[in-house]
Amino acid sequence: MDNKSLKKLEADLWESADLLRADSKLTSNQYCMPVLGLLFLRYAYGRFKKVEAELLKNRPSRGGRVLPIEASDFVSKSALFLPKEAQFDYLVNLPANIASAKLKNVHGQPLNSLGEVVNNAMELVEAQSEKLKGVLPKTYTDFKDNLLAELLRTFNNNALDDVGGDVMGRIYEYFLSKFAKNIASDDGVFFTPKSLVKMIVNVLEPSYGVLLDPACGSGGMFVQTGDFVNAAGMASNETMTFYGQEKVEYNAQLCLMNMAVHGLTGVVKSGDEANSFYHDAHNLTGQCDYVMANPPFNVDKVKAESCQSAGRLPFGLPAVNKDKEIGNGNYLWISYFYSYLNEKGRAGFVMAASATDSQSKDKDIREKLVATGHVDCMISVGNNFFYTKSLPCTLWFFDKCKKKNIKDKVLFIDARNYYTVVDRTLNEWSEWQLKNLNAIVWLYRGELDKYQSLLAEYRTTLLSYADETDDANLEKILRKTSKIAKQVELLKEYRETLRAEAKASVDAADKKSKKKTQEEWDTRLAEFDEILNVAKEADWLYEKFGDGKYKDILGLCKIATRAEIAEKNFSLTPGAYVGVAPVEDDGVDFAERMHEIHEELLKLQDESNTLMKTISKNMKELGI
Fold this sequence. Notes:
Elements lengths: L2 H22 L3 H30 L3 E2 L2 E2 L4 H5 L12 H5 L10 E2 L5 E2 L2 H13 L18 H11 L9 H19 L10 H11 L4 E5 L6 H12 L4 H4 E7 L2 H13 L4 E5 L17 E6 L8 E2 H7 L14 E2 L3 H11 E12 L8 H11 L3 E7 L11 E7 L9 E7 L4 E4 L2 E3 L2 H15 L2 H21 L3 H9 L3 H25 L2 H35 L11 E5 H6 L7 H4 L11 H32 L3
Parallel strand pairs: 5-6, 5-8, 6-7, 8-11, 12-14
Antiparallel strand pairs: 1-2, 3-4, 9-10, 11-13, 12-13, 14-17, 15-16
Helix pairs in contact: 1-6, 2-7, 2-11, 8-9, 8-15, 15-16, 15-19, 16-17, 16-19, 17-18, 18-19
Family: Belongs to the N(4)/N(6)-methyltransferase family.
Protein name: site-specific DNA-methyltransferase (adenine-specific)
EC number: 2.1.1.72
């Protein structure tokens, strides 16, 4: 399944599930876990069918009878055995009148609703895995039978049998991200935007050993690490050991399901014993090869004595007030992350932007931290990267095994003005922007081969577009132009030509075919924009670093020595070092941006109309 088809499948599944939520009168919080539970069950069923088919191919026989498949056979294949009553097709094909089927649950009690049957299926699945016990949702009796049946049919989409576990994991993450927008609250944030997670993983480059996330939420750090390790040709479950702590049990359940859908295993502790401020739940101080986290920022009223007794404070306590409380927990987290690392460990984490130059005891801790020589890289992130907060943040990176030539140095990157707009409230880094930022880190580390491989990837990708296109003009631009800057210029000019053709074509279409014509042109222009964006990012990188020589770029990046950091009062704010780039054309095409705004306005109007219909329907049901 290609990327375009997958995106459509994700969107279609979400739209169907979300429409059902609107009819259910359940809040997003009530709806999230059961829906993700069904996605998990659908994944487990797809994996079960695949492994079952493999096992039956070469199944031995005795006395002319093929030996029956047992649960242990599935364990050896890293799959869950599913009893008949927990298999997705069994649930989908149940009669509308459940009571008439005279079914019984694992405890021998009669089942009278579809919700009870699905709850029973979840219990049966949990019985197959010690790590899943108490994790899967069992609140399906909150759903009316007809709604639950429709959800089961939605996820019984045959297309899901054609995609692998990796893609099911992506669909699970897509649903997580959509739910995150609706559910997130100050004490229940469970989702770190994927581009931030990927940046952390890409810089740390995990390959083997122990990984701890002491604020693991829904497990994005584990999942992305698994993807990174697998992409490098290794098996993540064999080379990595995952440990997580998560105070909110609901989030820990999401994490364990997320890991299971991605074929990962790990140990995640939750509840009071997993409050990382006061507990090293896995006894991992000094034991971790990697630490990754997006902890809650600016937490106050943390009990100083409890923190002191729990240890993990190599640089001392932050400031303590008269009530024996720490007024801001940011430097507790920073100290903890450092303390967990072994002698070669690396850490990467998200932190409030204010922490890079906070004063008082924070500054004293920061000075001691800089003195270790283990601060590796600092990346400023702009506004609107989170669903719940619009404020900027900073990515911190520690490395206890830096090369000698950079032991005394820190790389500062100010990426606040480098991002892709998703919508009016959300920004992200595209895949190519992630690679470009990573390329700066490679050059800082002297890893020229990785940088040159990226340049080659750009060339290969643009040529592949030339191979695939039926547009002779586009092919000529992609093949005949050797300089990337000139290629970008020609692509921009050609886009204006296509925009004009699109408008003329839509205007000339009769009323019956106008909508279809518009959709066809929208698709073509979107595909063209994808090509143009790749070319733009290639130009962005090559214009700054050419064939691969690092240099400080005003307003973007600078390598500073510890002496320079001391001169700036031990601030770790990238903007204090990289300076401000000269004001120049922002590169935004006014007509293009107005078109995007118009499209967004139409989308908001559609959402408003849908909401008004829902409100009207609910008011009628209430007799108002």
